[in-house]
Design goal:
With 298 residues, the chain is mainly alpha-helical. It is built from 13 helices and no strands. The longest helix has 27 residues.
């Protein structure tokens, strides 16, 4: 099988996994607090990656940029808490579509922090993308959902995480970045999870365990997809996640995306694909590289 075909098939499975994961988060969050859901998810993922981390312990913690590692984890925590909160309170398709705004925040942060040069075409794509966000959010109108702000904050925080990873990767090993992510997120969220703890039912325990396992599995599939396929192709296919989110929203919650969601998503996805196309033409490395993606799917 050609590598691009393998990568495309794998990214489709990964997209389904991520969409299913957020659907299960929404189910679990109907009664459990978001910090509890995140804490259990993190414990499961730490248990899975611990053999790889401890095989290089304590060398895996060696870094000259401890402060930046902590800042990176703090932004990742904001992205997860805000993202999960939005998932619990909003239709899945709406949250998923707003999450695609991450690529536009990444462009802005890359110009600001990495001093990357961005031409007028990409700035136009960024502007178009945020128009799509406004179409979906509808601020000031009767259909405005305040939880959509959480989704946009999550996208911005995730974009910052990607930029910080690019900076850290110049000096730190991938296992070092992974180690700080794995342990610090669990530590930071442990106290609020304890304070808001509600003992899960057997069904809820199943949901929480599934969230952790599917999160890890989807991330691994994502990594292999970008190992096999071309980034410019796969980044475009990743938007199939919206279709999966719509499907799970209908099957599990009986919700359909509104025309505003569909219109805004079309603008965001179109602008994002154009951005990827411009990156391919310029021959530059995408911020959404496989080295970054395996640590930034939150």
């Amino acid at each position: 099988m050609p590598n691009n075909l393998k990568g495309a098939a794998t990214i489709m499975v990964a997209a389904a996994g991520f969409a299913l994961m957020v659907a299960l988060v929404k189910l679990a969050g109907e009664r459990l607090h978001v910090t509890q859901v995140l804490f259990v998810r993190q414990i499961i993922m730490v248990a899975i990656v611990s053999p790889a981390v401890f095989s290089q312990f304590p060398g895996c913690l060696k870094t000259d940029r401890l402060g930046l590692q902590i800042i990176r984890v703090a932004f990742a925590l904001v992205a997860m808490l805000c993202g999960f909160t939005a998932v619990i309170h909003m239709p899945l398709a709406d949250v998923t579509a707003l999450g695609f705004a991450k690529s536009f925040f990444t462009t802005i942060f890359a110009v600001w922090l990495l001093k990357e040069i961005v031409g007028w075409r990409r700035w136009a794509a960024v502007a178009a993308g945020f128009v799509g966000v406004l179409v979906m959010m509808r601020p000031g109108l009767s259909g405005f959902d305040p939880y959509s702000v959480y989704a946009v904050i999550a996208a911005a925080a995730a974009g910052m995480v990607m930029i910080i990873i690019r900076i850290l990767s110049r000096t730190d090993k991938p296992v070092t970045i992974l180690s700080y992510q794995a342990f610090l997120v669990g530590i930071f969220v442990a106290v609020p999870a304890y304070m808001n703890w509600i003992w899960p039912t057997l069904f809820e325990w199943g949901l929480l365990i599934a969230v952790g396992l599917i999160s890890y599995g989807a991330q691994m599939m994502n990594i292999y997809a970008y190992k096999w396929g071309e980034a410019s192709l796969l980044a475009s296919l990743d938007y199939v996640r919206l279709l999966w989110a719509t499907l799970f929203g209908v099957l599990l919650f009986g919700t359909l995306p509104t025309m505003y969601t569909l219109a805004g998503a079309a603008v965001i996805i179109g602008a994002s694909i154009y951005t990827v196309h411009r990156e391919r033409i310029r021959g530059t490395n995408l911020v959404r590289s496989p080295q970054g993606r395996d640590k930034t799917n939150v």
